[in-house]
Amino acid sequence: MLSRNVFRRLCLLTAVANGLGNILLLLFFRQVFAFLQVPPPTDLFSFAAVAGFSFTVGVLALMVFLSPETNAPLLLVGAIGKAIYALFTFYFYVFHDLHWFYACFGAWDAAFALIFMLFLMQLRGSDLMLFNDHIGPGATPIQHKALLVLYSLTGTGKAAMERVKRGLEENGYLTRVIPVEPVEQNLFRFPLTLTRFVRIMLRAVFRRPARVDPLPVGPDHDFDLVVVFCQTWFVGMSAPLEGVFQDPANQGIFAGRDVATVNVCRGLRRRSQAMLVRWLQRCGATVVGSCSHVHIGREPSRVLSLFAYLAFAQVGKPRWLSWLLQPRYGLSNEALDALQDFGARLARRKTWVGSKVYTGGLR
Amino acid sequence: MTFLSNLLDLVTLAPDHLIASLAFLGAVMAANDTLRTSLMIEFTRSAFVHVIINVMTLLPAGLLAVVLLVAAYRFPQRGWVNLAFAVLLYAAWYFGGAVTRLARRDSEGADPGFMFVGALITFPVGILAAVVF
Hints:
heterodimer; A: alpha/beta; B: 76% helix
């Protein structure tokens, strides 16, 4: 991974190239073009105007270099500008015999369009990266009581949360598990039929909410920690779990509490994790940590195993495909051990409450 | 008309502009996955963005299937060799996702699982086009 400083220096590089480079080019383009045998610009006004715009992108890059977090949105503007410039240069180079000298600028801008996008990615949602790395400090007085909220269609989530629960209990926590019950029990039940799978899939893609039964705890509960489990359904949160947050009556359960998230999926975990964390933050929870695990095996076996299991509800079916399928469905032993360790670390987390000096977790 | 015919050459692996066409399509496929991966943690409540991300997950596969189909129609003798170029373009698709790991260690990178699903769309169409035309 490239560090923030590397990206900043790259921004400085293009700031100098675009800023200073364009001024020098405007002042000395006749000499430079003659030296490199580049045909002189046919339209001086367009040449000067493009140089002026390019200079502006240099200023933009300088602003990002000076204060990346504040000026992060400028990176998107810069990336779009550079990508468009690169695209036009490419087209005119291929079809209108544009000189290689201009093509170099296009290649430079294509590279920086990508660099800007990557830097923007790094700057956005950096808290999610921290939640995955550390168990952060809590804001709730430790009572050693944890509430585990989960919805699991196939049972993978239940097995995962069982290990988190074990980790918590081995470290002195009392736990209570609350399974989320969708109102549409006929739709959200396993094994699936093809019709129900297609309905669930379309609803997941279009984010149609799923109503759930009221949770059997109120906002005044005495659990200091809530652990929420979420599966990924077509890149996002599973509909029944999102239904918990879509009901305002449930949001108080998380407000002001320490909350951790557990995500299990076939392969795409980031969006469902981000959706869950952002819901929790909107509810006023203090997110102390997140972990996510993908199913056992490698691709494409993992994706085939998922669809085969959803279709046949049995491991190793269909038989003719069994050589490509995983011998078990769900998480590996290593992932389950990591979840137990996650539970243990949650139980041992530090808290800001009652202490002026925080000694562990996030810095 | 010139612009449109040039564009058609670019997106159909025209033999006269083969390298340019590969570069263009490769850039489109890579940009699709870079953008998709960067959108993963953005607009978490937006159904519209969610649909877009889902579409982008398999868009390159569908796009490439259409490319192979039209390319085989325009240049019938190149139907089979275009399948090999499609494999190259899948590498560009993979690169677009994998490069995001340079920015974030928590990025999933490319998704070979759904790329495999995509290959089940692209290549049968490509083979069919090579056979038919």
